[in-house]
Amino acid sequence: MAxxxxxxLEVFMVGGTSSLRGSLSAKLIKGAVDAPLSWKLRNVARWGxxxxxxxxxxxxxxxxVTEIPTVVSSLSIRxxxxxxxxxxxxxxxxxxxxxxxxxxIVDDMDNSATDITTLNYHGVGTGVTAESAAQTxxxxxxxxxxxxDSTRATGTKSQPSANILRSVGTLTFDGSAAITEHGIFSQxxxxxxxxxxxxxxxxxxxAAADSINLCGFAA
Length: 219
Description:
- By secondary structure, the chain is of the alpha+beta class.
- The chain has helices at residues 37-44, 47-66, 99-111, and strands at 8-14, 23-29, 33-34, 73-80, 86-93, 121-125, 153-154, 156-161, 164-172, 177-185, 195-206, 211-218.
- A hairpin with a 5-residue loop joins strand 4 and strand 5.
- The longest helix has 20 residues, at 47-66.
- The chain starts with 7 loop residues before the first strand and ends with a strand.
């Protein structure tokens, strides 16, 4: 997940004077450690991950060969523990743009009845039902375990390249949960809005004061 790396190099100047005396010290704040290998194996062994990975790459190849555009999504996750440690789970899913999300984009292009710039709010949950393009919500979206309650993370958007949109959001928790699903929505409040895509992954356990950094891509 190098594109969403939060590693920081801090440099401090101590005791500088007009005669240029002083000292320079540097502190390297360690980047994220990799997620446990056992978790990675559980996640990539899922048929949903294998199918998503295959279709994502086939869609890319199809667009390159035919010049017919396709829309795909992927999700990368990092977790910040309460003690400050970062754990990098990498790309956890390549699924799935919803029918409702596509219709939302079409309506905006047709008559501006919607606004695709609002598709920028990250929600998570504990549902384990397989992804489907027909879904309009997460299966079991987290609400009171979030801090603040019932509020999705607002993403920070960027373009790694001209044909890729990236949205990065961070959710903080004030309780324990086994997070297994993610979606990007058109509103900040849980329980409503249009679902652009839904991602499923092996359970990531969080506790109070932990946070999840969610990096969603659409291309």
